[in-house]
Design goal:
The protein is mainly α. The chain has a domain at 11-156. The chain is built from seven helices and no strands. The protein has helices at 3-67, 73-101, 108-130, 136-148, 158-181, 190-200, 202-218. The radius of gyration is 27 Å and the shape is flat. It starts with a helix and ends with a helix.
């Protein structure tokens, strides 16, 4: 084999290798996109189910308020919980719209960023809903009124009213402090990592760790 033949053979081999690499990269990208589409489809249906649940909660609370129009603890409690339910419904509808607007033709890196923003939105929505925890007595007041037709607040002694008020305030402050730390900038904290993984899954945790490492390397 002379030098020209060897050179031609070498160039053909290089062209073949480059074509194979391109095909493999395309197949890998397509596989990743299909995986993302499946995960987003599951997420979409989860948000739809949650939206239906929130809708019925709002409907039931609205009927309860309309039937018991008065300035009482159960009605005020129903109003408070209705606000949180409306926030939950609006947030889930926003996520559904976001999922429908995701362009799968974008590069994988951009698709990952879109999913990260979607997961971050879910985390923020969950944090807002968790702010209903300090209003735990609202559930109690409504429960007593619906199940036993008793306005529990009217039967509470003054010192118990103060106790529940102070405990709710303390819980509100504690919840606010905890939720303020529940973001990807604190992702290396074990409890933050576990909490975020529980709320939105391991995907956000992985992305957050990656973004955090980039930020640290740039700083």
């Amino acid at each position: 084999m002379n030098l020209d033949n060897f050179r031609n053979t070498w160039q053909q081999q290089n062209s073949f290798n480059e074509s194979a690499i391109t095909i493999n990269q395309s197949m890998l990208s397509e596989t990743k996109v299909n995986k993302q589409m499946k995960e987003l489809s599951n997420m979409k249906w989860a948000r739809i189910i949650e939206s239906v649940i929130f809708f019925f909660i709002i409907l039931l609370l609205g009927q309860y308020i309309a039937k018991n129009v008065s300035v009482s603890a159960p009605v005020i409690s129903a109003l408070i919980l209705a606000v949180f339910a409306i926030v939950g419904l609006a947030g889930n509808i926003g996520q559904i719209v976001h999922i429908y607007n995701i362009d799968y033709a974008k590069p994988i890196s951009q698709l990952q960023k879109d999913i990260y923003r979607l997961c971050s939105h879910k985390l923020q929505l969950t944090k807002l809903l968790l702010m209903s925890a300090p209003f735990y007595m609202a559930y109690v007041f409504i429960g007593f009124d619906v199940l036993f037709e008793i306005d529990l607040f009217a039967h509470l002694e003054q010192h118990m009213v103060w106790f529940y008020s102070v405990s709710s305030l303390v819980l509100l402050i504690a919840t606010g402090c905890v939720l303020a730390k529940l973001n990807y900038t604190n992702i290396k904290a074990p409890w933050v990592k576990r909490a975020i993984a529980f709320i939105v899954g391991e995907r956000l945790v992985t992305m957050a760790l990656f973004i955090k490492s980039i930020e640290l390397s740039d700083s």
